[in-house]
Structure to design on (171 residues):
């Protein structure tokens, strides 16, 4: 997928993240892994994915450090695919994507919902600032800016966006 990343975006964390998880099957495999699937045949049966595509996606997920390939049987050798810590850290992202999708469906049209395992009550996932608890969906209240490792192009981009914000605020 690296050919899809624009040269000027190579330092952008969104662009580099999409390289790892932006492919259709990758998100679905990760979702199944969060549900506890670990074996090739489980993923294949759940997703209806071709053997060659599943093999390629699993290899990429292992190479990217999101899954770990472990033998679970020796005769014949069989492997399972277990989420790494890095892979587990993507769960809130998958939950947020599913919640976004459900927000745009009528309740009776939702095929999957997130619930509290103890109470069975449906959860309402939101992404919030850990310090304030405020929702991050307000594009005026929370904006991106150049970080310490930003190159000149990234710094110019966010300096220009800040000028535009201030100009809009002044009018």
């Amino acid at each position: 997928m690296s050919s899809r990343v624009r040269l000027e975006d190579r330092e952008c964390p969104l662009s580099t993240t999409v390289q790892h998880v932006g492919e259709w099957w990758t998100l679905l495999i990760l979702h199944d892994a969060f549900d506890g699937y670990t074996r090739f045949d489980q993923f294949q049966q759940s997703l209806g994915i071709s053997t060659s595509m599943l093999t390629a996606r699993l290899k990429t997920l292992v190479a990217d450090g999101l899954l770990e390939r472990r033998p679970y049987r020796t005769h014949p050798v069989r492997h399972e695919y277990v989420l790494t810590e890095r892979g587990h850290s993507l769960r809130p992202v998958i939950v947020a994507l599913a919640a976004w999708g459900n927000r745009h469906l009528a309740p009776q049209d939702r095929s999957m919902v997130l619930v509290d395992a103890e109470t069975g009550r449906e959860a309402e996932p939101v992404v919030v600032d850990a310090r304030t608890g405020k929702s991050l969906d307000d594009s005026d209240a929370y904006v991106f800016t150049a970080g310490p490792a930003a190159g000149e192009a990234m710094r110019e981009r966010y300096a220009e966006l800040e000028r535009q914000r201030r100009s809009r605020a002044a009018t």
